[in-house]
Amino acid sequence: MRRFFRFRSNQAAEVLPTAEQPLLLNEAFHEPKQCIFIAIPKTGTTSIRNQLKQSGEFLIPNPHLNILQIRDCIYPFYLRRSLGRNFAFPTEGLVEDSAVRLQARTTFETYFKFSLVRNPWARAVSLYFRREGRPLHQEIDFASFCEKHFYASDTCKHPTLHRNQSDWLCDESGKSLMDLVCKLESIEVGIREIAERTAGRIVLTQLHDNRNELSRAASYKDMYNERTRKIIAQRFEKDIDHFQYTFQES
Prior knowledge:
Layout: E1 5-6, E2 14-15, E3 23-24, E4 29-30, E5 35-38, H1 46-51, E6 57-58, H2 67-82, H3 97-110, E7 112-117, H4 120-128, H5 142-148, E8 180-183, H6 187-197, H7 226-235, H8 237-242
């Protein structure tokens, strides 16, 4: 793929427009709006992702990277974009690696980082009924699913072995790196806060894209008995405590 570069002193190289699609890091990383949206599977993220959709070729196409993966990919993404062919002698106008690294750190620190989470009991039902991959609701009963449901990424097309939703959002020590984490159950409040916190830079609308008519997540409580309810409570205790969820929350 041919790309053309213009170099400026002391800053990362700029990719000149071509007839081809531009190279983007990942759909979570949005340069025009200066934000990072971490899309945890089955938390109602499709409508947000569609509203933030960008045209281009992704360096890493997986839509469900965690915040650490995005953070660590910014530098090589900027590095790749800064590299080009040098036809000048003496060599001049090239960006130093230290400038690329500084730009990557500054970008991560200043971009607005946000995500959505969901009631673990409702989310388990949604994962059970999901249409992508293997249709587990046609293969096993819900009690059997709960017994084997060990990871928050279970049944995902690209499982990443996150045990809890919060694992998508934290650094190596367990500290959250997000500016805002909204609950799907109160998405209207979250949308307003996102617009306020970004001074109107990120304006979203509550939509219902990718709705699964087969799923019983809206009435998830009816899927559980005392045993399966306790299984989910124990498996995802970290999320339940951290985000203050209860089984009865709708």
